[in-house]
Write a structure and sequence with these properties.
By secondary structure, the chain is an alpha/beta fold. It has helices at residues 27-41, 59-64, 69-94, 115-123, 141-151, 185-191, 198-206, 221-226, and strands spanning 7-12, 46-51, 98-102, 111-112, 127-131, 156-161, 182-183, 211-215, 233-235.
Length: 236
């Protein structure tokens, strides 16, 4: 079986790695994610991954508690690297080759990221885990995902979340919220929907990188998305 995409950028939220915990990494959830991703890698699809860091530290919430914004964002970047190392370790246990890249030089923790290096990894069948955000404060990991997706020439950005797509309102708060099968970048903006931050959405729009928002917590969903099943919401 071959997917409809050759190369994907998978964005995972840090919060989803918490699973049932209040903080940090739930090993069961981590392993379940690694197994889902390996299943897709085994189909010959090239995979780059960007993970958030909200399960450990979120720069913006740190700012509201008195942290300097730049230092808060740097702490958030380090949190994404911790998550990336955890995922790298989970792939090791499954025998799946992967490599951690960091936005700022952090040898020997990971290789310093460059698009050419990451693309070389992808072509060799390694999963490229690209950590450390953009390497700059004031940018979210959503923006980092859009940027990395464009840089490595991904066919699509897959945003794996706890929710099964984009809704008219937050379905966890509003029971009347209805789900979109697909929605344009412009409509996301005019409706003020919180799919991703504006910088990330604009970057995807300008570079024609479609986004699929889907529920990563349901085992098998990632495979369904890459094989073209109607799972989640397409943002185009």
């Amino acid at each position: 079986m071959v997917g409809q995409y050759k190369r994907i950028l998978l964005k995972l939220s840090g919060e989803s790695l918490m699973g049932k915990k209040q903080y940090g990494i739930d090993e069961v959830r981590l392993q379940a994610y690694a197994e889902q991703i390996k299943e897709v890698a085994d189909m010959g699809i090239e995979i780059a991954i960007v993970i958030g860091g909200g399960n450990i530290f979120r720069g913006l919430s740190g700012t509201s508690q008195g942290f300097d914004r730049v230092k808060g964002d740097q702490m958030g970047m380090l949190a994404t690297i911790i998550n990336s190392l955890a995922l790298n370790s989970a792939f090791d246990t499954l025998g799946q080759p992967s490599r951690v890249y960091t936005a700022t030089a952090m040898h020997p923790i990971g290789e310093h990221y460059s698009p050419a290096r990451a693309i070389e990894s992808l072509r060799k069948g390694e999963i490229a885990i690209i950590s450390g955000g953009t390497g700059n404060p004031f940018f979210t990991t959503d923006t980092a995902s859009a940027l990395r997706g464009v840089e490595v020439g991904a066919d699509v950005m897959l945003k794996g979340t706890r929710v099964d797509g984009v809704y008219t309102a937050d379905p966890e708060k509003d029971p009347t919220a209805t789900k979109f099968d697909k929605i344009s970048y412009d409509e996301v903006y005019t409706r003020g929907l919180k799919v991703m931050d504006l910088t990330a959405t604009t970057l995807c729009k300008e570079n024609h990188l479609p986004i699929i928002v889907f529920d990563m917590d349901t085992a098998g969903n990632l495979k369904k998305v890459v094989t073209g099943e109607n799972v989640g919401t397409l943002v185009y």
